[in-house]
Amino acid sequence: MENKNENSLLKTGNFIHSYINEDLKADLNKLHTRFPPEPNGYLHIGHAKSICLNFGLAETYNGKCNLRFDDTNPAKEDTEFVESIKNDIKWLGFDWEDRLYFASSYFDKMYEYALMLIKKGKAYVCDLSAEEIRQSRGTLNTAGTESPYRNRSIEENLDLFERMKNGEFADGEKTLRAKIDMASPNINMRDPVLYRISHQSHHATFDKWCIYPMYDYAHPVEDAIEGITHSICTMEFEDHRPLYNWVIDEIGFDLKPRQIEFAKLNLSNTIMGKRFLRSLVEENKVDGWDDPRLITLSGIRRRGYTPESIRAFCEMVGVSKANSIVDLAQLEYCIREDLKPKVPVVMAVLDPIKLVITNYPEDKVEMLEIENHPENEEMGKRLVPFTRELYIERSDFMEEPVKKFFRLAPGKEVRLKGAYFVQCTDFIKNEKGEITEIHCTYDPETKCGSGFSKRKVKGTIHWVSKAHAVNVKAMLYNNLTMEDKNSEKGYSFNPNSLEIMDKCMVEPSIKDAEPFDRFQFIRNGYFCVDYKHTTKERLVFNRIVSLKSSFKENPINSTGK
Ligand code: ATP
Ligand code: MG
User: Fold this and answer.
1) Which residue has the higher pLDDT, 561 or 343?
2) Would the CB of 39 count as within 6 Å of ligand 1?
């Protein structure tokens, strides 16, 4: 038995691997999993965990993984979501090959299996309303009460179920229920509803059906039809597993898929719940489902995250049965680690202030050779123009420097990255008292790389030649939500989650950058060219992540429910 991938998942192993090893023994390549999204929203980082797990296991064991749209719910589904989901999975680097399925294409089979259950005396048509069913279900400590319709004859059930299908009844008037045990200690086994009536058009089957299977009935049938060996789902389905197995056993499928549950991914300081995300999109508080602040896969892709970093993150957080909240800083760590060795380091001034080197010739342009990456010589060097008038970061100057401020201040000297030492001689203020210009002199003897070492300076700052600077728009992102004691959820949308740096000035080497090109802006973080708002005239950059963790403890429940 040879495995396609020496995946680290296999080396470390987890409880899912043990189950699979125990079930399939020498036939590990028979492993067949599926990723079953409901096409009712965009995928988020939590789904990525499920995708990496299901497709990852198939890769590890040389098995197969299906993509199956679980479109059994006519109300909320849309083909826009189907396309975005396919796109996200491909982007993550996984391939369902020719195994793209839709649960709705099994509606005929599901109906036939339901008839079979009725004929076996294992299902009946019930006239109780949803509320009556709920009330008669009992509690954790008391048994439920049997429906007065429970003992209808098989003939009557077949007749009524057919008439349900034919549209003779209104929504909610009747249901098809499994006949299991109203006294079961597991409430899910107390005659659960298998089919409900809904006179709503479905995105794939249109008006063919007015009865729709419930998730607990549909899901095991879908898995069994596709020959899934291991049906991996999240913990909230643990109590439904007996019902999953009941459906498989009573219908009599030969291959019995095994349901295995794992804990959902929760992330601190962000919200994954589709409902909250949808409300932000619909109320135009964010720039669509791919707003870079959202933890949707399309959002973090637009922001500049790489598929490799997401896969590394999913691997790092691992799988377990215990619920926990993963620190957002861990995701940020993964993208930094991925980008650090790969992307060029350039100079960009986010909040510029003019610096004039009064003893530097007015028309002179020196092309300084600067390395593209401090730790990777193979990435080569580039030429950066140096002139008398530069931009530096406003925050790199202090009129009255505080203790341990080693950057520019009156009389102080700093190193300009890759260039010369400059000493501040003067500064100019406007009528409002704001500093508009800083004057310096440079020491020609201190040229970078000239071997000069007469004196030392503590601070090095970045700069851009004013005449050559490219003005770009830089979008900086903060936490999507903030604590809000007045909101019942305990949080609300953070109106300061986006900071636009309109005057950002970047060295000319980036002027031909294309959407999704990534750079490290020295001292300011990793940035990615925004594909949506960049035009021929102007580049827009999203800050992917700052260089250091900006994480602040803020206990927000990330599911948003
Ligand atoms: P949400 O509740 O956030 O709207 P969902 O569970 O309704 O998500 P589905 O489309 O049903 O969304 O999910 C597809 C698959 O992804 C399911 O198998 C589900 O268990 C899994 N999944 C969803 N959210 C997470 C998460 N946070 N962590 C891990 N897996 C998840
Ligand atoms: Mg779901």
Assistant:
1) 343
2) no
Best residue among 234, 241, 559 to mutate for probing ligand 1's pocket (most ligand atoms within 8 Å of CB) is 234
Ligand 1 within 6 A of CB of 234: yes
Which domains occur in the chain, in start order?
A: 15-262 (3.40.50.620), 352-462 (2.40.240.10), 471-545 (2.40.240.10)
Confidence of residue 12 (pLDDT cuts 50, 70, 90): low
User: Is 264 a pocket residue for ligand 1 (Cβ < 6 Å)?
Assistant: yes
| pLDDT score, position 452 | 67
- Which of 246, 276, 313, 303 minimizes the C-alpha distance to 53? 313
- Model pLDDT, residue 300: 97
Span from the CA of 11 to the centroid of ligand 2 (angstroms): 30
Instruction: State the distance from the centre of ligand 2 to the C-alpha of 37, rounded, in angstroms.
Output: 7
What is the 237 CA–ligand 2 centroid distance (Å)? Answer: 10
The token pair at 191 is: 């005659």
**What is residue 450's predicted lDDT score, i.e. its pLDDT?**
82
Helices 79-92 and 45-61 pack at an angle, to 10 degrees, of: 50
Distance CA 43, CA 289 (A): 10
Q: What is the pLDDT of residues 386-420, one digit of tens each?
A: 999 999 999 999 999 999 999 999 999 999 999 99
Cα(127)–Cα(135) distance, integer angstroms: 14
Mean pLDDT of 526-551: 92
Specify the higher pLDDT residue, 12 or 220: 220
**Token pair in block for residue 330:** 């861990």
Give yes or no for residue 219 CB within 6 A of ligand 1. Answer: no
Tally of helices (H runs) and strands (E runs) in the chain? 13, 31
Helix H or strand E segment including 352: strand 352-357
3-class state of residue 161 by DSSP: helix
Determine the Cα–Cα distance for residues 331 and 181; give it in Å rounded to an integer: 46
What pLDDT does residue 78 have? 77
How far is the centre of ligand 1, averaged over its atoms, from the C-alpha of 366 (Å)?
A: 56
pLDDT of residue 560: 34
Q: Would you say the pTM of this structure is higher than 0.90?
A: yes
Distances, alpha carbon 494 to alpha carbons 270, 282, 472, 479, 556, in Å: 11, 16, 25, 7, 13
DSSP string, 508-527: GGGTT--TT-EEEETTTEEE
Residue 515 to residues 309, 318, 361, 536, 545: CA-CA distances in angstroms? 19, 32, 37, 11, 17
46 Cβ closer than 6 Å to some ligand 1 atom: yes
Residue 455 token pair: 């004196």
Cβ of 299 below 6 Å from ligand 1? no
pLDDT at 122: 98
Which H/E stretch holds residue 542?
Answer: strand 540-545
Q: Distance from the CA of 362 to the center of ligand 1, in angstroms?
A: 62
How confident is the model at residue 202, as a pLDDT? 92
pLDDT at residue 453 above 90? no
Find the 470 Cα to ligand 2 centroid distance in Å: 46
Q: Is the CB of 34 under 6 A from ligand 1?
A: no
